[in-house]
Design goal:
Low-confidence stretches: none
Helix content: 25-40%
Distance between the termini: 24 Å
CATH architecture: Alpha-Beta Barrel
CATH superfamily: Aldolase class I
Mean pLDDT: 94
Structural class: alpha/beta
Strand content: 15-25%
Number of domains: 1
Largest sheet: 8 strands, parallel, barrel
Length: 208
Amino acid sequence: MSNLLPQRGLYVLTDDTLTGGDRLVTAVAQAIQGGAVMVQYRSKSPDRQRRHWEALDVLTLCRPLGIPLLINDDVELAAEIGADGAHIGGTDMPIAEARTLLGADKILGVSCYNRPALAAEAAAAGADYIAFGRFFASQSKPNAVQAAPSLFEDSRSLEIPRCAIGGITPENAPALLEAGADLLAVIGGVFAEPNIRAAAQRYANLFV
């Protein structure tokens, strides 16, 4: 497991609609001030040059603060800019190939949806953490499969951090943490709020 990976805490994911353009770095900075322990640059823009420079800008913010930056679904970009890792879908690039591109010391996260068998395969192949979800109605992924909190108990033996994603709020998050979630991945619950720092702090306080 990468030494860069936080074992518990708030994991914020950027969004083109909520954090696009000039808002990106400021929004991420505010989330970190509120207590985010890890950041994922997540962009669906087809403009690869834009994604390169945006990701590099966020990395320039995160690196001196000791906050890991992961790139969503673009292992090549993560390797290109020297990010701290990448997150891939369970049916995307093979984990072994992603690991080769990233290097042994980088963080590799894998989406496992609601599938314990996929989580076990990812852990065995060298994933540093796995993500389950969605758990609640999600603006970012409204059609994502439904996951149950029991997935965390079922995957406890994997001995790597397990991340919850999908419609997570400060009100419904405690049930996921009680079930065994280690990381809470949040987009709108932080970045759609008028006070990003305060919103992040509400999640971070759940880990105190």
